[in-house]
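hey so i finally got around to running the thing on that chain from the lab meeting. sorry it took forever, my laptop kept dying and i had to restart like 3 times. anyway pasting the input first so we r on the same page abt which one it is
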Amino acid sequence: MAYENNDKRESEFNELAFKIARINRLQDKCNILWQSPKQKWFNQEIMGGGPQFGFVLISSNLLQLYKEVRPKCNSKEREKMDKAKDKISELSEKEDDAIGKKGINGDKVIYRYDHKKWLEIKKLLDTFENNVRDLLDEHGFSPDKNEVRGL
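ok and heres what got predicted. didnt touch it at all, straight out
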């Protein structure tokens, strides 16, 4: 057996590598969804989940990113980000109302976008995303710029 003293066991795998992989996957999803944030996307990760607006999926992924870094945050950072998190969480609750008016034209559901509302949502998401990415950098979840090697 590799361990003689059971009281001092250490994990044989590096949890940080798995955490970084989750973070990279979430960031990749956000980058893809930002290409069409007002479009309805099919959320394949939720069984039976129907299409959702891209901005709702972006907010969900950003909240997951924040959950990854939150344990490393100090109380001041948590307080600031938790307030913003609550605003972000409201987006998915009021998905249809958040972006504009929903109408029905025959068999089709049509969304009329309120540009002012959309700009508010976009600003909220941009700010939250930038703050989360800053926290990830600050707390060591992003590669050190000096360690990144290009071609």
